[in-house]
Amino acid sequence: MRAPAFLFALAIAVLLPATPAAAARALVASEIRYTLRHAPGETGTAWVVDVEVRGIPADAARLTFELSGWGGAADAPGYLEALETSSSIHAAGPGRFEALLGDAPHGVVAFRYALHLPRIGSAAQRARGLLATHDDAYAFGYSWSTLVQVFVNGEPLAGKRTLTLLAPRGTPIITGWAGRGTAEQRVVLDAAMGNAPLAFGRPTHEAERSRGRFDVEVYQFGSGRDATPAVADVLIAAGPVLARQFGTAARDPYRAFITDHAGGGMGSHFGLRIGFGADQPAGVEEGEWFRAFVLHEFVHDWLGQQLVEDDSSLVWFKEGFTEYLALWTATSTGLVSREWFARRLLELESIARTRSALGQVAFGDPTVSWRDGDGPLETLAYTGAPLLALLLDVELREARRPGLPALVRDLLRREDRAYGLTTLATWFADAGLGARWQRSVLGTELPSVRELLERAGYRISADGEEASRLEDSRALDRFFAFRP
Ligand SMILES: [Zn+2]
Fold this sequence. Notes:
The protein is an alpha+beta fold. It contains twelve helices and 25 strands.
């Protein structure tokens, strides 16, 4: 296991600003030091976090510590408890604490809090599946629902973040940032920080794979049977292909976590998590559905982490196009069969046409709130938008374009890694699909999957239930190829 480049000790110079220019330089010299102590106990498990802010700009009037609203962490009852602090800090809203800087020289402001981890399977844990959680053998969480962010005058404080993770002797510490360590792990990050999985406890299963210059580490916790080889095989097969396809590589080593609490999967800036409990049907991890599921979370490393949507009106694009690109890539790499690709899209279509707002809501309507708790809109994003992606992929190829992976590749080439609806509309207009965009994104026209599969090169059997390959599969060979 190699030592990541960002694991190093950092010396910080604290500048005392005298002029506005110096104040601007002083922003760069600010530093936030987090210490996270894993504290398992008889009555429950807590993570105790110390935050020390150094190099506070002289013009700072207001300094706040804020836990993100991600996953409902900020207002989860009994989750965050403020503990003693070195300066006057008071609660200023859910998950939000304000420090009174006063007239004293702005030296160091410190804040200590505890997160009381709900037990896996408890009502509190099931209600908010992205909170840090624990059982007797391990604790698992994400940095976004664990570490408070620091804001000065309403803006995120610039500068480095140093994190020290501590655990009782003998307890492994495993994070998306730095992999596996014991007793202490130190990480240095930039101001953007990103979201990372973090775990304390001994994994029940582990797997490592290397292919070329791509390395994968998979850690499993809890009672599920060993799914690490299955997850590692998907990541190692797809990683180099996705890197070529999208023009940028995934994080290396790429780390995946498997836990036995529900909540599906979650991609993050520093690796993914898959839920896999003891109740999973025998052999499911060797099946095509599971492979595509893992690949969906992995594709989010590009579409979701490296590329970020402007706002939540693009949930349909992020989720639906991630799903389609995962299915397409799983097929092009041989992780799933061409038959399964077609069957899965027909299945998504039957769900979308019966349980979603397909045909009633335009994907490109910026006023739609997509997250309705698996209601008709969220179902449309996950099951209807992949069908739109199939339509656009088929028509790009009919227009002698390289196909849909080129969209992600081209967006990643732009300096601005954030995209909006206009960015997407412009790309499709440039590719000659402006009219299609009008009808099927700003409008609601969507041909049947059966028609689209036939245009891609499939032959559909008479009952329409099963899809099979053309006898002459050259058309499908082209459809499952990508040459940018
Ligand atoms: Zn997703």
